[in-house]
Design goal:
It is a single chain. The chain is α/β, with parallel strands linked by helices and 334 residues long. The chain is built from 15 helices and eleven strands. The strands form three sheets. A five-stranded mixed beta sheet has the order 2-1-3-10-4. Strands 8-5-9-11 form a four-stranded mixed beta sheet. Helix 2 runs antiparallel to helix 12. The chain starts with a helix and ends with a helix. It binds alpha-D-glucopyranuronic acid (GCU). The site of alpha-D-glucopyranuronic acid has 10 residues, from loops.
Length: 334
Amino acid sequence: MKKKHIALILAAAVMVLAGIVIVIKTINKKPEPEYVFTYAENQSDGYPTSMGAYYFASLVEEKTNGRIKILVYTSGKLGREADVVTQMRYGGVDFARVSLSQLAEFSPALNVLQMPYIYNDAKHMWSVLDGEIGDYFLNLVSEVDLYGLSWYDAGARSFYNSLKPIRKLEDLEGLKIRVQQSDLMIDMVECLGATAVPLSYEEVYSALELGSIDAAENNWPSYEDTDHYKVAHYFCEDEHTRVPEMQICSIHTWNLLSDEDKAIIRECADASAEYERKVWNERVEKSRETAIDNGVVVTSLSKKEISRFREKVQPIYEKYCSEYMDILNKISEQ
Ligand code: GCU
């Protein structure tokens, strides 16, 4: 064969190969996303609710073949919880996971689900949230321009402080206790004889360190993840509340989506909630261990003391729940 023919054959082969590469690249190329949404989370990256958010975003991307991309912003980068809820009502943030305390400020009926001592234990809370009462409240947030997707776990909240071990009601007297920015939580702490100081989550560490507050209340993972255990060494496992958390979507975002996409998002939100509950339980144990290994003094309350605490907070049931007695009764019967 002449050299010229060999060169022509080689050139043709190179062109065919190049063609094949272009076709493969085109086939494999991910389409540009049709939607890019934001997701607000105020906990740090490795925290169970953030892990749930990342899982949710990756499932949605996978199930829509990249058509819907959700960018998760952790550590409060999109703002404090209360501001995030406000932004979402106007479409400024698309998705979030927030504490019910903040949502109840906009939709007061939700207070029912975070009343002190309303659940006997975690199992009781989940039987309520996973049932028709939980669904009713997920739907209720549409009255404030949100779409409720799923419930996340935030365990039980207990008091911790920098001054002394708490063993009885009188030990709380006069303590300056940080509470969430929620009227119900302010009233609860005041009923217990302490002074309530409403602050955002981000402000608690320095307030404890500087001594402008003596105490706060939260679950084990928050206490540990935020380093509060380094500045408040006394943790009383009184478990006065269980404040569930909700994964929500702005109604403006929700209305953009097709029915098919809505179904995918609901399915992914449920799967992420299941995942979060699993990692939550693992983290509670680890956080408790870390705190104790670092010298935290853990106390608990006798049954008699718990009933004294319960009795003290009864007035807030009248103030916040008188219109929802039927729901309260259903919860206690469950
Ligand atoms: C929990 C909850 C947060 C909330 C915080 C608080 O850690 O997960 O979303 O902001 O409580 O006490 O404010």
